[in-house]
Amino acid sequence: MGEPEGDRDRLFPRLADAEGEVQARPPAGAEHQGERHADRRHEECCSQAHTDILAPGTGPGILITMSVAAFVEVNGQKTRVQETGAGQPVVLLHGWGGRIESMAPVARCLSPAFRVVAMDLPGFGESPAPEGVWGTPDYAIFVRDVLAERGIERAHMIGHSYGGKVSLFLGATHPELVDKLVLVDASGVRSAPSLGTRAKRVASTAAKTAGRFGSPGRRIRQAVFDRIASKDYREAGAMRPILVRLVNEDMTPLMPRVRSSTLLVWGDRDEDTPVSYGRKMESLIRDSGLVVLEGAGHFSYLDQADRFCRVVRHFLGAPLA
Predict the structure, then answer these.
(1) What is the pLDDT of residues 227-253, one digit of tens each?
(2) How many CB atoms lie within 10 A of CB 126?
(3) Quick one: DSSP state of residue 37?
(4) What is the pLDDT of residues 132-178, one digit of tens each?
(5) How many CA atoms lie within 13 A of 75 on its CB side?
(6) Torsion from C-alpha of 295, 164, 306, 81, nearest 10 degrees
(7) How many other C-beta atoms are found inside a 10 Å radius of the C-beta of residue 130?
(8) Where residue 305 sits, what CATH number does that domain have?
(9) 64 is in which domain, residue-wise?
């Protein structure tokens, strides 16, 4: 799978055994999935907000009951929180455009062995948008305070995409809170802009200039923006200023400060946060190892759900079952 063997052997002494026991299923679709597809992806796997779920390896008819989600208010900001299972806490953070249900397969995997806590980050799912233009530090502090309200002093953190960025920030700035860290197709690496991105910036500047020249200019400006803006940006609505702030953040200076053992899981077909981001994180986070899931895209935990479950359970110390 292309991972440096030294780190893999140190972090996962029985990883080969864990992977060997996995019957990996084919990818859910031939197309590469990105955060712009978050709503459709969580509808495919977890359309019910409150449901009973089969525990892995238990067979038909043996269920783990998901607790009913409850709203928690911290410092005037409400969020929806759902818990299931018992034991050491594991916190699940979804990506941009996601919600609690986006992470339901991960909760199903871990709830037989852990107390799994998932939440709608502010502005997503059923949680209202925050006041002001939040950045990752604001989201991280909010997650910390929600966990304190739930009586959680230390937990494993699992974050997908933007949720991985928040988890990474917590690991770097609040090491006392984070036990083990799992980053799945995570954002946080700011790469040099591609030729296409630079061309879009030039077009955007020209469109802004055109917009100063009355109604025809404004129509030109809107037409250009409609063509070059990402789907996330067009659909962000009130969250657009937050999205702009987040995509311009670079977490790489914080990565050497992470002390938690860190599992990096990436899909080799991820086009939104390519596997090169995972390799960069592996080079900067001292106690880390990268597992690349072949045939998986940006939602690697869905595309290779069985393998993902097996590897993460092993990393966190749960029975392989």
Answers:
(1) 534 455 455 668 999 999 999 999 999
(2) 13
(3) G
(4) 999 999 999 999 999 999 999 999 999 999 999 999 999 999 999 99
(5) 13
(6) -140
(7) 20
(8) 3.40.50.1820
(9) 5-190+249-316
